[in-house]
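Input record (one chain):
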Amino acid sequence: MAHARPFALRARRRAAAVVAVIGLLAAAGCGSDSGEPPSAVGTPRAGGSLDILATSDARSLDPFLPSYAAQADGNRMAALYDSLLWTNPVTGSVQPQLAESLTPVEGGGNKIWSLRMRPNLKFTDGIVFDAAAVKINWDTHAVPTTNSRQRDATVGMKSQIGADALELRIILDKPNGNFDRLVARSLSFIASPKAIAEGVDKLAEHPVGAGPFMLAPGGWVKGDHLTLVKNPTYWQGPAKPYLDSITFRYESSGTAAVDRVKKGKADVANVSDAFTLKAARAAGVGVESLALSGGQLLSFDTSGGPTANPDVRRAIVLALSSEEINRRVFGGAGTPARGIFNQATALANPQLSAPENKPQQAAELFAKVTDKGAKPMRIKFIAPKSAAIDELGRYMKETLEKFPGVTLDVETADLSEFVKRSNLADAFDVKVSQLLADDPEPVVYQYLHRGSPSNCCFYGDDAVDRALDDARNTTDPSRRRAAYTQLQLQLDRDMPLWVYQEAVVAGVFHSGVTGVQLCNDGIFLFDRLGKKG
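The corresponding structure, as predicted from the sequence alone:
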């Protein structure tokens, strides 16, 4: 399970991701200046607290309704529940945490896997944390009425108790050589079976996990803060976690969060946009950054309307320039993307680059689809409200409406309304999207595979599905790279989406903080985070 499969490397250059669709997470808390330069590596002293700034309140504290993204609820989930497994974005490996191992069963053709739990684990309510607890959680995700955001991960999966109470046997309907990555990203947070039996609605406000922290009595004051205190029965022993408590508070401005870190009024921030990362580096605070694939992108409704026509999608992309978007929207701070894979990763093919910024080819295609302007075409572009996105909309409108017969209607909405509309066919033709992937599994697979509930664009293509399936069923880097090369080639031909800015996630921290390590798409490992001695 922990075999290395290099995908994401530590970022060595500035990169950018979504400005408007992401969340910003920052940890703060009366941190004293140690007088030393920031260092992510070190053993924290025992005690202390951190405040964690987020752009919004938690929707729920159960493991079913929240988003597991680091920029959403991933950090709250990790603090409350710990993880069965986590992915190391630097090495590409999958690491055990609460689980002892997750491996394919020999002779099972990557369709049968064995999950083995550590012995003597318990939830904070005293209930035993064994294989049955995992099964109950995964079965709850699969129930449609749970409305779990992770239900997609349970499709085609069955489980049963194995040789003893600590083993869970998983039977998949299709081979998946990277099932451990799926668990690490989508099924890793486990709640007490007793709490689930009492009702997910109750669990939403009274979480019961086995993580390093637990909800303090009266600790959730909605709209203001969420305080978690050290779990006295944490499985790693009384020395862990190092901190006595953490408190999530809400701050929508990334630059304001960095300013607080700089001034010692905040301790840690998880940032994921070019402007904030640039500000953090200029401020001289600590930065622990990751290069992830995906990034900020345009995705198209391929199910109907004008963008159901691949010629229209291709014409739009050929008309636009990632360099110009970087200049106008990101102030030159970001890194224009060449495709869905970050070029610093082992699975990228450096010879490939998505077609863009070819206005003559765009003119020819627009002339074809509009009959030289005789059949006007209106394209609906939707995006969440933000100054940066407003500038992107202006650039796109100015550029596309230079072509006869083309009109771009730009609509912005608050984030909740945007998310609702962007999941409905015919509610848009083009939308701003974000993808943050430490590995293509499972994120890219779920984003593009035909019929996936997480499919970005109501998209289906046989060549894309074949490439995704081929890559899913192997751990060999050369075979994965070959499959993903075929994927990129087909995406460049069909253009269901266009990535225009590379992604980045960084842990930004004050000099008084140490033990900063990011997993998955940027979630902090809370059993390692703390204050310098």
